[in-house]
Amino acid sequence: MKFSLPSFALWRSGALAAFTRFPWNILCGAIGAACLITLIHTEHNEWLEGQCVRLAMAAAIGMPLFFSVRIVRERIPKFTPWPIEIVGLFVLAGWFFAQPASPLRLPGIIWIQWLLLLAALHCVAAVSAHFSRTESLSFWQFNRRLFVRFCLATLYTVVLTGGLELAMLSADKLFQLKLGKEYGDLFFLMVGLFHPTFFLTGVPRDFAALDVESDYPRGLKAFTQFALAPLVAVYTAILYAYAIKIIIIRSWPHGWVALPVLLLSGIGILAFLLLSPLRSRPEEKWARWFTTNFPRALAPLSVLLLISVLIRAREYGITEARYIGIVAALWTFAWAIVFILHRPAGIRWIPSSLAIIAVLCAFGPWSAGEISKISQVKRLKHMLQAHGMWKDDHAQAPGGTVELSKAEETNLRSTLNYIIATHGGPTIKLIFEPSVLYRDWQKLIAWEAAGDIITALNIVAQEESPRLILVRRKPDSFLDVQDFRRLWRINLYASNPTWNPKRSEGVAVGIEQGALKLTTGGDNAREEISLQRIFDRIQSSRGHQLPDEDLTIDFQNGTRTFRIVFESLTVRRETNGLSLNSTELYLLQK
After folding, report:
1. Residue 360, class by beta-carbon neighbours within 10 Å (0-12 exposed, 13-18 middle, 19+ buried)?
2. Cystine design at 305: which of 172, 261, 374, 577 (Cβ 3.0–4.6 Å)?
3. DSSP, res 565
4. Would you kindly state where each structural domain of the chain is located, as residue ranges?
5. How far is C-alpha 211 from the geometric centre of its chain's CA atoms?
């Protein structure tokens, strides 16, 4: 059998066909690449940097927007003769001019809204071929083709870009070309031009053929069965084990559980969608079992996700990430219930609902940004009021210094930093302007402004007492052994909770439950050596070195007289006082 590579003419014709069918998409890719290349070659030009960033953001939005409009034009006969892509051009231009001139120097909420809008438009692209039609197998076939083509385009782009970058590096080293930013130029050209062109070349044209196509790719089934399904099984096992732990120890889940649940939801729902056509085929027992049982397994975990996020929100207020986590938990639970109660339910509602949710999360008084801003500002006001720094509906510096614990000061600082970085200085202008004077609240640097506000309010963080305290005897000093005939140097540690003393010639010394004990008559006769005088001296001393007289104890055990001189002590600070953690001591006997 003769093997031949695709000819250059075939590649050229495919690229030309993609440009003819999706010219606006190719143009968006070229503009985005040009803007990013210009950005990495631009220095100290704030206006040009701002224009390049927002034009690149607009180009990224234009990719799914123009794709959706083109597919709608091809699928709805009354739109076919008209270049309705112009509507998308006006929408994109309106969005571009509505954005601030310098997005890089503005609050992070701009980027959150942009990412949510981008996600919504990609979901719209998934249903663009079936807006006005009942759902059929062609919906799945169309999106399956897009998914496979996107993965293939990404693979080609990564391999080609990596190979060309290595070739440039070789040429650079061999011929001393002194290449630098050219590596970035190549990367953006490949991502902005090659990747979309290669992807768009494979977008299905014959929609009627998709309606009758019933073949299921064996490679896709193998990918789902041997790659996605094992990941789903691993995450499900870990999360159910964690849920059992919660029930046993009766402790609420912490915030970190959100990430594995979201990963499980994403991977599992993707596997469910890829296996969707096999749900109704009796011969595909594995696919039927997975699509039947995965929603049942996911429903309780979505409740676990919701509880963990709500606990974090109750403790630290709502943020955009927690808001989206709550929405994701509710949507995942709804998805699971739909397919538990009605197994043959369609799948077109999935991208449609996600598109609507993403838009609602991005814009409006109910959006993630607005709810988070209200929550964090309210939390900030509560912290100020709790420490007497609130008067006449704004922050007010008290007459003296405000001492906060380190945790409270960190909490206040991080809240200020979050509000300014995410929502901008004007959000807190009315709160702090009477106390902290700024010339321009629009251009605050978050961490710097948070520090200035804390300084202006005369807030001082109390140093937290260390949990472990190390004390030593003063160095370079003799040890007085007058009147004593024997000396024993001992190292003791409280790592073992049971009595495990050091022994020598009938004497046993050890640490038991934070107390120093000694016995000369067997382990059952051990007596505690009072260290209260030394502990009091440690509490009152600001130094970590003490003279011998402060580290010496004389005592009797039975008929024997002893003296202990501590070379070093490590004591643990407990709620009811100090306890001995480890020590190096000299035991002297008369």
Report:
1. middle
2. 261
3. E
4. 18-215, 224-363, 368-462, 468-589
5. 41
Mean pLDDT comparison of 161-165, 455-459, 473-477, highest-scoring range: 161-165
> Helix or strand or coil: residue 162?
helix
Q: How far apart are CA 235 and CA 301, in angstroms?
A: 11
pLDDT in tens, 341-371: 998 888 999 999 999 999 999 999 999 999 9
- Identify any residues that bridge with 575 across adjacent strands, giving them in sequence order: none
Give 208: exposed, middle or buried? Use CB within 10 Å, 0-12, 13-18, 19+.
exposed
Question: Positive or negative, the Cα torsion across 89, 92, 98, 99?
Answer: negative
Evaluate if residue 255 carries a pLDDT over 60: yes
Are the CB atoms for 556 and 549 separated by under 8 Å? no
What residue has token string 């000694």? 518
Q: What angle do CA 115, 75, 129 make, to 5 degrees?
A: 40
Question: Tokens at residue 64, please?
Answer: 């799914």
| Average pLDDT rounded to a whole number, residues 293-316 | 92
Tell me the β-bridge partners of 179. none
Which residue would you say has higher pLDDT here, 5 or 243? 243
- Asked if 308 contacts 348 with a C-beta cutoff of 8 angstroms, the reply is no
